[in-house]
Structures are given as structure tokens and as C-alpha cells.
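Listing S7. Sequence submitted for prediction.
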Amino acid sequence: MIDETVEEIKEMQTHSSSTVAVKAARALEDLLDREHETVEEYVRALERNSNVLRRANPSHASLATTQRAIVRMVESADAESVAAAKERTQEAIDDVVEQVVTAKRRAADNAVSLFEDGMTFMTHDYSSTVLEAVEQAVADGCYLEAYVLEARPRYLGRKTARVLGEMDQVDVHLAIDSAAGHFLPECDRVFTGMDCIVDETLYNRVGTYPLVATADHADVPVTTVGSSAKIVDEGFRFENDFRSVSEVIREPAEGFAVENPAYDATPTDLLDVVVTDEGTWEN
């Protein structure tokens, strides 16, 4: 299960960073069925496998923080037996998963008030937290219009458009990323998720920076929604992921280089509102 989860994270088969954190945490349960002679051997195996999971995508702050939390909780328990260490591991995994799920729900709850009946919004990529907030707003009676950008080259925005398209009270338009400036004047607000915020910089799916910069020029407020665990000040260094060139061009690239970064960096002073499970702050 651990190896399968590592490959899934590397291939970005799971798009939401909170879902990645939960899957990676649950993957460690695989160790509970393995034989270990001593507590020290078990803890070393836990540390090793946790590190492999973290390295599957170094850009995910929530993945790194949740994995470190699980290992730290097991190490600090100073278990006297392998069975006790495994029991503490299961408790740590359950605690971390509950924290991730609860934080995501609370962040969505805090964002709901920013959706107003009849408003038009734009969103980019795929954020399960933003989608949960939209779903709650619709349940509260809001009728919304949404412009969804594709998030090329992996087209994760198409998944967002399909999810929103299933909501009866949301009128959905799917557009290419470079059309953001064309449709922004029709929008009341932009909503994005967050991979992480580090040192006053939002790291999110590539295409976020030009969208936010254009929205700032067009005087359309931008709201970023995510768990507070994704806002880190120390102990984490963002590492971009450069994807396969085949996602950009299928034929051989002769005489030119192909660049395919997964994320870009947006200064947080371009964001109007950041919403987390701990509350809301405005620029």
C-alpha cells in the first residue's frame, strides 16, 4: 500500500493536497501488519517509510507536516513493546486524519459567507475545500455562476467543472487559462485553493500567479482557502515539481527545451482574503 500510494502521489493521481495527506497517513497502516523484532526496528521502519512518502511530493506542506506529526507522536510515546508502538501509530494516524478532515471542513465553513446569491466567481485548478464551500453555499440557497480555468497542462480544472456542473444551482463555464483576463470583468471574486503559504508566498498549481495578478489589475478580489496547516513559517522548504514534457508536447522536442513546472509562486500581498480553519485575514 505504501509503494502504491507513493506512485499515486508522484503521478498526481490524487489532486487535493488534503486528500494526499490523508492517503499518505493511512498508507502507514501497512506497517502494522509487518513483523518487527524490536521497537527500535519498528520505529526505524516507520521513519524510513514516512520519509519516502514525504519525498513523493516535497511541495506538499500538509503531507510533510502530517507525516512528521505521526512519527513524532510514536517516537515520543517511548513504547515498551512493538505492539504498543503499533497501537500508538494507529492512534496517531487517526488523530492526524481527523485533524485534516476537520480543518478542511472548518475552512470551507469560514469561506461560505463570501459566496452571495447571484454572484459570479472564477476558480482555478481543483480545490476540494473551495468545492465544499460552494456546495454549502448552494445548500444555503445561493444561485451562482462559475468560470473554471482548465489548469493546463493536466487539465485538473475540468474535474472541477464536472463537480460544479452536478450542482443544479451553479451555471458553469469552462475556459482555457489564457482567457482569464477576458472573463474576469464579469466576475465578483476569484477563489483559489492553496498548496501552501511559505514566507508570504502562495505556492499553488501553475497558472495561479498570472490569474491573481490579472485579477488584481482588474480590481477583482481574490480569496485563497485552505487548512492552516498549509501555512508554514519554518521547518519546510518548498520544492517545485517539474513534470514530464509529454504533458506539454507529445512529439519529440527538437531544437528547443520544454518546461513543465507544476506550481508557481504568488506574493500574498496580491491576495485580498485568506480563509483557513482558524479564521479569516484580509490584506
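Caption to Listing S7: primary sequence and predicted C-alpha cells for the chain studied. The longest strand covers residues 144-149. Residues 82-111 form the longest helix (30 residues).
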